[in-house]
Amino acid sequence: MNIPLINVESRFEVLCRSYVCAVFDVLKLQIQRDAGVHATQLLWGVGVLSDHRPHYLGAWHVHDPKDAWWRAVASDLQDRGVERLRIMIGPDPVEIQAAMAPRCRYNAVLPASSTLAHLEIESALSGHRQYVERALKVTNSLSLRLKRAAARQGPFANAAAAAALLRQSAERCISRDCPEPFEPVRALRSLSSVALTAAVG
Question: In this structure, is residue 193 part of a structural domain?
Answer without folding.
Answer: no
